[in-house]
C-alpha cells in the first residue's frame, strides 16, 4: 500500500472579491514506495495539491484516492511536515513528537518505542528534553519529521520542509531524508522550488507551472540511488 491517484483535479478558491484557480487539471499516479518531487515556482499550487492529498482541502472537481479509497476528509494514514516546524514551545522534543500519539490515541508504550527509534534515526539523541527554542532550525525540523513519522504513515507529505534553513543544514537533512525514505519504505511526496533538491531526492520529478497550476512535465530521474 501507499499509492496515491490524482485524477483530473482542479481547485478554485472563491472569496468575496476574487477567484483563484490554484490547481487546474492535474493527474498523477504515485506508486507505493516512490519518492515524487513536485517542483515549481511560488504560487503554482504545490501546497494546495498536497493539502488535497491529505484531505485538508477538497478538490473543486476531480478525485484523489489514497491507498485505493477516495479522500473525503483529513487522512490518518498520512504524515505531514511543513516549512515551519510548528512545535509547541513549552514541550520538549520528545514530547512534541509524542503529541502525534496523543492526538491519534496510539498505544502509549508502542508510541514511546517508535519515538525513541526515530530520535535515534534522526540524530536527536541527547536532545529529548530540549525545548524548541533551545534547538537549531535543523534540529527543530528533525523533530517535526519524527512527529510526522510517529504513526508510521504509508505516505509522507513534505511541503518545503527545509526551505527556511541554511544551505549546509538543508543538504544534511536532505541526505537524512533520503536515508529515512530508504529505510522505512514510505511513499514520499516532496514539494520544493529547488531543482537540485527535486532531482537529488526524487525518483520522479513533476514540474508545475503557475496561473493556473498545471503539471507541464514529468521527468524520470535515472541517477544512481546510492549516495554513501
Ligand atoms: P505554492 O505552494 O506552489 O506556492 P499554493 O498552493 O500555496 O502554491 O497557492 C496557489 C494559489 O492559490 C496562490 O495564488 C494562492 O494565493 C492561492 N491560494 C492558496 N490557498 C488559498 C486559500 N485558502 N484561499 C484563497 N487562495 C488561496
Ligand atoms: P545540521 O542539520 O547540518 O546537522 P544543525 O544546526 O541542525 O545542523 O545541528 C548541527 C549539530 O549541532 C547537531 O548535529 C547537534 O549535534 C548540534 N546542535 C544543534 N543544536 C544544538 C543545540 N541546541 N545545543 C547543542 N548542540 C546542538
From TrEMBL:
Matching InterPro entries: AAA+_ATPase, ABC_transporter-like_ATP-bd, ABC_transporter-like_CS, ABC_transporter_ATP-bind, P-loop_NTPase
GO MF annotation, one: ATP hydrolysis activity
Domain of life per record: Bacteria
The entry's keywords: ATP-binding, Nucleotide-binding, Transport
Keyword check for Nucleotide-binding: yes
Domain ABC transporter residues, every copy: 4-228
First and last residue of the signal peptide: none
UniProt-listed SUPFAM superfamilies: P-loop containing nucleoside triphosphate hydrolases
Pfam families assigned to the protein according to its UniProt record, in alphabetical order: ABC_tran
UniProt xrefs under Gene3D superfamilies: P-loop containing nucleotide triphosphate hydrolases
Protein name: ABC transporter ATP-binding protein
Source organism of this protein record: Streptomyces coryli
Lineage, broadest ranks: Bacteria, Bacillati, Actinomycetota, Actinomycetes, Kitasatosporales
Amino acid at each position: 500500500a501507499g499509492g496515491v491517484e490524482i485524477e483530473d483535479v482542479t481547485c478554485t478558491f472563491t472569496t468575496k472579491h476574487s477567484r483563484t484557480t490554484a490547481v487546474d487539471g492535474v493527474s498523477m499516479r504515485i506508486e507505493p514506495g516512490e519518492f515524487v518531487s513536485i517542483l515549481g515556482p511560488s504560487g503554482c499550487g504545490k501546497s494546495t495539491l498536497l493539502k488535497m492529498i491529505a484531505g485538508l482541502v477538497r478538490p473543486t472537481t476531480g478525485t484523489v484516492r489514497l491507498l485505493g479509497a477516495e479522500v473525503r476528509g483529513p487522512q490518518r494514514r498520512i504524515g505531514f511536515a511543513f516549512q515551519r516546524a510548528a512545535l509547541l514551545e513549552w514541550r520538549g522534543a520528545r514530547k512534541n513528537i509524542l503529541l502525534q500519539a496523543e492526538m491519534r490515541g496510539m498505544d502509549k508504550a508502542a508510541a514511546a518505542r517508535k519515538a525513541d527509534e526515530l530520535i535515534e534515526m534522526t540524530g536527536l539523541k541527547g536532545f529529548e528534553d530540549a525545548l524548541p527554542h533551545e534547538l537549531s532550525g535543523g534540529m527543530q525540523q528533525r523533530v517535526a519529521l519524527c512527529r510526522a513519522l510517529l504513526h508510521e504513515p504509508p505516505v509522507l507529505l513534505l511541503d518545503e520542509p527545509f526551505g527556511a534553513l541554511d544551505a549546509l543544514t538543508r543538504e544534511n537533512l536532505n541526505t537524512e531524508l533520503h536515508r529515512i525514505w530508504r529505510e522505512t519504505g514510505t511513499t514520499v511526496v516532496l514539494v520544493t522550488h529547488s531543482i537540485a533538491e527535486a532531482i537529488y531526492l526524487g525518483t520522479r520529478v513533476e514540474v508545475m507551472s503557475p496561473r493556473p497550476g498545471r503539471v507541464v512535465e514529468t521527468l524520470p530521474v535515472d541517477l544512481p540511488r546510492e549516495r554513501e
